[in-house]
Amino acid sequence: MKKKAIYYEDRRNRRPVEKFINGFELKIKAKVLARIEFLEGRWQELRRPYVDALQEGLYELRVIFSGNQIRVIYAYMFSDYIVLLHGIIKKTREVPQEDMLKAKNRMNDFQMRFREGRIKLPKIE
Description:
single chain; alpha+beta; five-stranded mixed sheet; 3 helices; 5 strands; 27% strand; globular
């Protein structure tokens, strides 16, 4: 069963992961977007080097391009969705705790606003 990847959107309608991805040159952007599409269709079977579990319901989508370790931190939510929470270029062995906290806070914010009826999820095609 396919899942739908969606961008986390804050209360001011900003999408930080979309902005992060759009900041790359075309070849890198294309590779990251292709990897997100790959995740949507094959999420059940993907393991390292494509994805890795982090902590507390968070996962990382792993993309390497010209030596840069690009990571998109995401969470599976509401059975059919992959919410893209935070993007980084990883420079250390571990994902920095400040980035983990940012992703966790965005996940909690998304869940809270969904429960309050302030977020409408797109239809799964």
